[in-house]
Amino acid sequence: MADDWSGTPTCSNLSRGSTVRGMTDDDNKLLGTWKLVSASSTDASGAQIEPPFGANPIGFLTYTEDGRVVALISHGGRKALTVGAEGPALLEEQAEAFKTFLAYSGRYQLLGDKIIHSVEISSIQNYVDKELVRTVQFQGNRIALFTPPTMVNGKIQIVELLWERLEASRDLPMRNLVS
């Protein structure tokens, strides 16, 4: 689980009121919504290690024309919270739910082979007012994002997230509505 991503070397201070420079033609190739295909990690020697978001993670990454980014990543197989749970059982379920979901939003800029996410709101408060820097590789309708060496689950590793562009759809089915 990616439960100790806070304070990682991928973050740098972002002063309040900082702005991200305007969009460029290169940014257009990022526009849209991307679905997570895979997440993997390697250690300093390049050996594959436990994936940062467990087996079969689910995620979406959206880049907008006005320079905004939204990232959502969930471990696969998350459990629903027990209806009516109280006390320690509820706290344990909530802690597990928090540890298995990452969400943040802010502004972004593409600088060569680097994408910078300037975080404004996050499920991990340590990310707020920080810049998450990733190396990006474009592969047709896919992009691969790589962290610099980062402390995850007590180990320094490089995380690779492979995303595939979703096609725009006007008729989305409604399902699993919550009342």
Q: Would you kindly provide a written description of the structure presented here, covering whatever features stand out?
A:
- By secondary structure, the chain is mainly beta.
- It has one domain (11-77, 99-165): Lipocalin.
- 7% of the residues lie in helices and 44% in strands.
- The chain has one helix and eleven strands, in the order βββββαββββββ.
- It has an eight-stranded antiparallel β-barrel.
- β6 and β7 form a beta hairpin.
- The longest helix has 13 residues, at 87-99.
- It is globular, with a radius of gyration of 17 Å.
- 25% of the residues are buried.
Topology of this structure?
Layout: E1 11-13, E2 32-42, E3 48-49, E4 58-63, E5 68-74, H1 87-99, E6 101-111, E7 114-122, E8 130-139, E9 142-146, E10 150-152, E11 155-165
Antiparallel strand pairs: 1-8, 2-3, 2-4, 2-11, 4-5, 5-6, 6-7, 7-8, 8-9, 9-11, 10-11
Query: Helix coverage percent of residues?
Result: under 10%
Low-confidence stretches: 1-24
Range of strand content: 35-45%
Distance between the termini: 31 Å
What gross morphology would you assign?
globular
The structure class reads mainly beta
Strand order of the largest sheet: 2-4-5-6-7-8-9-11
Order of helices and strands: EEEEEHEEEEEE
Number of domains: 1
The oligomerization state is single chain
Rg over CA atoms: 17 Å
